[in-house]
């Protein structure tokens, strides 16, 4: 499953951050999930709970922030957050857009002890 490999690399980077900071454990993991990233939050949570055992994240709280699609309109230059997966500028109705956020999933922050 897609989410399993994501969590495995996420846990690896947590281990690495903990080592670099000489932390005993990670208490909180915050990730950002773009709505276009294809990541299912429920599956990601399950995968995290499954794989965190015996890692520095064993007792960590897993927090997911859902990132909506952010676009930069090429016609009017305005930056907007799209409420729906509808690729149109809310200001000028242009479809000539650059997606600037909401496509990726990444680690936002870690709290460690
Ligand atoms: Zn526009």
Key terms for this structure?
alpha+beta; 113 residues; 6 strands; 2 helices; binds zinc ion; three-stranded antiparallel sheet; three-stranded mixed sheet
Ligands bound here? zinc ion
Order of helices and strands: HEHEEEEE
Structural class: alpha+beta
Question: For the terminal residues, how far apart are their CA atoms?
Answer: 31 Å
How would you sum up the major sheet? 3 strands, mixed
Shape: elongated
Strand content: 25-35%
Could you report the average pLDDT, rounded to the nearest whole number? 95
DSSP summary, beta strand count: 6
Strand order of the largest sheet: 2-1-6
Instruction: Give me the Rg, rounded.
Output: 17 Å
Low-confidence stretches: none
- What is the helix tally? 2
* Helix content class: 25-40%
How would you describe the overall organization of this protein?
The structure is a single chain. The protein has 2 helices and 6 strands, in the order αβαβββββ. Strand 1, helix 2 and strand 2 form a beta-alpha-beta unit. It has helices at 2-20, 41-51; strands at residues 26-34, 61-67, 69-73, 79-82, 97-101, 105-112. The relative contact order is 0.25. Helix 1 crosses helix 2 (41-51). The two termini are 31 Å apart. It is elongated and about 50 Å long. It has a 3-stranded mixed sheet. Strands 4-3-5 form a 3-stranded antiparallel sheet, with no helix packed on it. The longest helix is centred in the N-terminal third of the chain and has 19 residues, at 2-20. The chain has 113 residues and is α+β, with helices and mostly antiparallel strands. The site of zinc ion has 8 residues, from loops.
